[in-house]
Each structure stands twice: as structure tokens, then as C-alpha cells.
Amino acid sequence: MTRHALPPPTLSLASPAFPARLPDDETCWQAIRRRDRAWNGRFWFSVRTTGVYCLPSCAARPPLRRNVSFHASPEAAEAAGFRACRRCRPRDWQADVGLSRPVADACRLFDATDLDAPPSLAEVAQRVGLSAGALSKRFVTELGVNPRDWLIARKRQRFRKALRAGDSVADALYGAGYGSPSRVYESSDKALGMTPATYAKGGAGAQIDFTTTESDFGRVLVAATPKGIAAVFLGDDDSVLEKDLRRDFPAADITRNDRVLGPRVKAVLARLHGRRPSALDAADVPLDIVGTAFQWKVWKELTRIPAGETRTYGEIARRIGEPSAARAVGRACATNQAAGVIPCHRAVGAGGTLNGYRWGVSRKERLLAAERLAEGRRRSST
């Protein structure tokens, strides 16, 4: 492997660990009130009276709710005319989501080098003051993957970004560091959920049916491809939920299809109400959701938690054989797109704290209560 001299770390916005979809307004506002660091990178907020935008955890004086707006990215906030807060430095959010300085610096060093000839793990480890083994353990603990898998994921992120920017498939794959087209097509299901050519067109040609329905937890959107359920969103407004879906696949053939999705909606609602087991391989709720090997380990472990019960992120980490990866478990829960089907509401913070739920903490409480009620009825009937 050819090695290059490493440049000094440069601070730049890394690709977010969370999808660019805003949580509902009330969840955002409560996160700001708590100054909840767990929501950094999930959204940014701006204050009309000061003209700045901040991280949810910003230590500045709390703003009035009427002056606050929410944004999916720093770029969105700046496009709306706001400038970055000098106190919380919102463009540097990755350093504030639990990453230690060595891991954050290592990520920047890997990012700043030629993908065709990345530096060795030992070289980067030396630059950040750790041994190669210690740095690798830190990656697993804080990011849920080892450095090699992190580099693979970053390559995929570059590939997707180039495609969405309008690059040809060939330019995007070689620019991302793939040695041949076959390599990216072999892994396209994991990298994109569809072929590169389809993804390059914003999902053009992909068939996604969706429907919405009422539930005890607000409005529910269920979307599915021919392979299985691609998303289950919870919210308060059908138009907002549909907008989120179309934002993910702007050129896909998205059709409202209440009749075809009827049986799957019933199965999803049963999961939400805790009336049926939630094994991920259940025939009535097949999934077409992309995730890393680590994320799937976490998601499958969540389905093993009895309905109505909870486990801390640390307990889940130990159960999947990664006892030091509690933070990464939290991130895997945050990236779950199938509310209820993958029951991330059963994951809680240390001491049983109900925090950081993508669809709102109040919904998390109601989901657990519904499961406990259903479980109690089952026991009383036997």
C-alpha cells in the first residue's frame, strides 16, 4: 500500500450519522429545553431574534418558543439567513455526539486522504496518540464498527453523494474509490437499497407504495417496495409524513395504495400495540431496510426484549457481544426507520431514562404502555 504524508486534522462537517429528516416540532423543542446532547446532529435550531442557529445542547440562554425554527442541516439554516453560533459551534457537531477526540481526529485524518491509498491504521493511530489496537476498540465502542468497516461506509457515502450531485455512475464510483464497477454493484443492496443507476436518478424506477392511517400514537405512514416494508413513520400530519418519504426518494414512483398495503398496515399496527411477536423475519412484516451488520445485530436484539419491557443501551450492547458499544447501540436505535416493527422504543438510557426517541418521548411512553396492557390481557386470558 502506497502511503502519503498525513495533513494536519482539519475540522469539517462529517457526514451525519442520522438521516436528514426532522423530528416533529415538539420533540425538537423538548430536546432544546433539556439541552439534550443525544439530539445533536439530528436537527439544528435557529433563533429569529438573534439571527444565529445552534445545536440542541447549546448552553446559551434558552430562547422563546415563538422565535425558534428547526432545520435538517447547517446548510438549511444558513440558506434561511442564519449564522452559526460561536458558543456551540453547530458545524462541528460530530465532536459533540460522544466521540472522543482521538476517534474524531482519526475520522478526519481518514477523510482528508486519498481513498485510493488510505493511510494505515497504525499510521493514523500514531497521529492521534493511540496504538492501532486501542484505536480500533475505540471505533467499535463509539461508532459500532471497526476502522475498516467505517472506511467502507464512508466510501459508500461519497458514492451516494456524488450520484445525488449529478455525477455519472462511472465518475461517482471511481471518485469514491471503487476499483471497478462490479465492486459497487455487488454491494448495491447494502449501499443503496437499489442499483446505482436507479439511486443516481433519485430512486427513478423504484416502486414504493404507501398509505397512512390513524393509531393511538398519532398518524402512521407505512411504505413498502415489492421486497417489503421500507419505512414506518409516526407523526401528526399526513402531508408531513408523505413529504418525508418523497424527500428520501425524490424521483421514485411513489403511489398511495391503501388497498394493497391494507394487510401490512394491520400487521404494523399490531406491532405498535404489542399484540404480536416482533421477530424481524416474520412473514407478515418483511423488511426492505438497509443497515450495517452492527445495526442489524442491535435491531434483532431489540425484538428479543419482551413487549412492554425495556433494556438499557449498555445491556443491549452486552447481549450482542459488544459490551463497550453502548453509544453505538444508541445510534443504531436512532437510525431505525421502521417504528414499532423494530421496537427501538424498548431501548432506554442508563437508569431507565426514556430519552432520545425519534418520534417523541411521549409516544415512546404510550407504546410501552400499550405493550404492557396487551401483555397483561394475554396473561389474564391464559
Protein model, in words:
This protein folds into three domains: 25-92, DNA Methylphosphotriester Repair Domain, CATH 3.40.10; 101-200, Orthogonal Bundle (Arc Repressor Mutant, subunit A), CATH 1.10.10; 205-382, Arc Repressor Mutant, subunit A (Orthogonal Bundle). Helix content is 42%, strand content 12%. The chain contains 16 helices and ten strands. It has helices spanning 25-34, 74-79, 101-111, 121-128, 132-143, 147-164, 169-176, 181-186, 188-191, 196-200, 238-248, 262-272, 293-304, 313-319, 326-334, 361-381, and strands at 44-47, 52-54, 68-71, 83-84, 207-215, 218-224, 229-235, 253-256, 311-312, 347-348. Helix 3 packs across helix 4 and helix 6 (147-164) packs antiparallel against helix 7.
Tell me the CATH topology of the largest domain.
Arc Repressor Mutant, subunit A
CATH superfamily of the largest domain: Winged helix-like DNA-binding domain superfamily/Winged helix DNA-binding domain
Write down the secondary-structure element order.
HEEEHEHHHHHHHHEEEHEHHEHHEH
What is the CA–CA distance across the termini? 65 Å
Query: Structural class given helices, strands, pairing?
Result: alpha/beta
Shape: globular
Spatial order of the strands forming the largest sheet: 3-1-2-4
Mean pLDDT across the residues is: 75
Outline the low-pLDDT stretches: 1-20, 179-205
Instruction: Give the helix proportion (percent range).
Output: 40-55%
Q: What's the total count of β strands?
A: 10
Number of helices: 16
CATH class of the largest domain equals Mainly Alpha
